[in-house]
User: Fold UPF0303 protein GCM10023336_05950 from Streptomyces similanensis.
Amino acid sequence: MTAPGAAPTIEELEAQEDRLVFDRFTHDDAWALGSLLVELARQRQAPVAVDIHRAGQQLFHAALPGSTPDNDAWIARKRRVVERYGCASYLVGARFRAKGTTFEESSRLDADAYAAHGGSFPITVAGAGVIGAVTVSGLPQVADHRLVVEALERFLAR
Assistant:
């Protein structure tokens, strides 16, 4: 396990994805998960926007004090990475960095439409695969990623 504040390793990121899998994911689950994320962010006075999409439909969105319209643009860019690669936006960026390059340099995707920065995590349903994404924007990318993972861990432990 990496030290607090340090970037997680690729192995840790992959283990998170293996572990954080839903049996099902409903509209009510989106509301509960989104509300949990908002609660955690409020406790920390984090100036974030929170978004949950499933199958192309936005099921939850909240913008907390201090967030800006730029956070919504970042959410869309990070979510597109999850939709395209089927894994966390931070993991995609980490895999490019491990190859000695960056997502922006080597993905051949439009940087105005895609961002492999931390904060978007796949909603994976057992037996169905990735069906959506939960995304946070407003903190440094590792902190965005960790906030989403913490919320998913708490939600799935219920």
About this structure: DSSP finds six helices and four strands in the chain. The longest strand covers residues 129-137. Helices lie at 10-19, 27-43, 69-85, 89-98, 103-106, 141-157. The chain has a mean pLDDT of 96.
